[in-house]
């Protein structure tokens, strides 16, 4: 008499761990992609320059529009609000800011925004310009 064999179990593909792995990959991909998207800001007529450099990705782009107001991440701010916003960033010595001012903005408005950045402790300040 032959010994009785157990019925063979079929192999199963476990889909739950595969879904977990794919979810983690998706989350990491989204996080990296969000850091690569630059804050383009507003459509401004930037002044032109014969020499321009590509700056590293700034933490904030400060847009100064023709009426002298400052727009950061789509929100209009006064100079006092801008100073507290930049100061709340944490380590302001490593905060990088690019100032994009419209061609028709008075120079005094530009200097006031630079002064607010320095009062907040920001030292990495770039100026946006178009290449000619």
CATH architecture of the domain at 40-131: 2-Layer Sandwich
CATH topology of the domain at 40-131: Nucleotidyltransferase, domain 5
What's the helix-strand series? HEEEEHEHEE
Under CATH at level 1, the class of the domain at 40-131 stands as Alpha Beta
For the terminal residues, how far apart are their CA atoms? 95 Å
Tell how many strands the DSSP assignment holds: 7
The overall average pLDDT, rounded, is 82
Largest sheet strand order: 4-3-2-5-6
Query: What is the helical fraction, as a range of percent?
Result: 25-40%
Uncertain segments: none
Task: Provide the structure class.
Answer: alpha/beta
- Strand count, sense and closure of the main sheet? 5 strands, mixed
Q: Approximately how much beta-strand content do the residues carry?
A: 15-25%
Shape: elongated
Number of helices: 3
Radius of gyration: 26 Å
How would you explain this protein's 3D organization?
It is a single-pass membrane protein; Single-pass type II membrane protein. The structure is a single chain. Helix content is 33%, strand content 19%. With 132 residues, the chain is of the alpha/beta class. The protein has a domain of 92 residues: Nucleotidyltransferase, domain 5, CATH 3.30.420.270.
Features:
transmembrane helix, 132 residues, Biopolymer transporter ExbD, two-stranded parallel sheet, 5-stranded mixed β-sheet, alpha/beta, transport, Nucleotidyltransferase, domain 5, 3 helices, transmembrane, cell membrane
Quick structural summary:
It comes from Acidithiobacillus sulfurivorans. With 132 residues, the protein is α/β, with parallel strands linked by helices.
């Amino acid at each position: 008499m032959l010994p009785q064999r157990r019925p063979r179990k079929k192999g199963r593909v476990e889909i739950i761990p595969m879904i977990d792995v794919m979810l983690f990959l998706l989350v990491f991909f989204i996080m990296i992609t969000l850091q690569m998207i630059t804050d383009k800001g507003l459509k401004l007529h930037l002044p032109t320059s014969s020499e321009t450099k590509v700056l590293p990705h700034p933490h904030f782009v400060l847009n100064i529009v023709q009426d002298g107001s400052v727009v950061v991440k789509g929100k209009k701010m006064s100079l006092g609000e801008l100073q507290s916003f930049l100061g709340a960033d944490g380590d302001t010595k490593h905060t990088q800011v690019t100032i994009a001012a419209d061609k028709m903005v008075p120079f005094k408005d530009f200097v006031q925004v630079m002064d607010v950045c320095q009062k907040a402790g920001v030292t990495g300040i770039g100026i946006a310009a178009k290449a000619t």
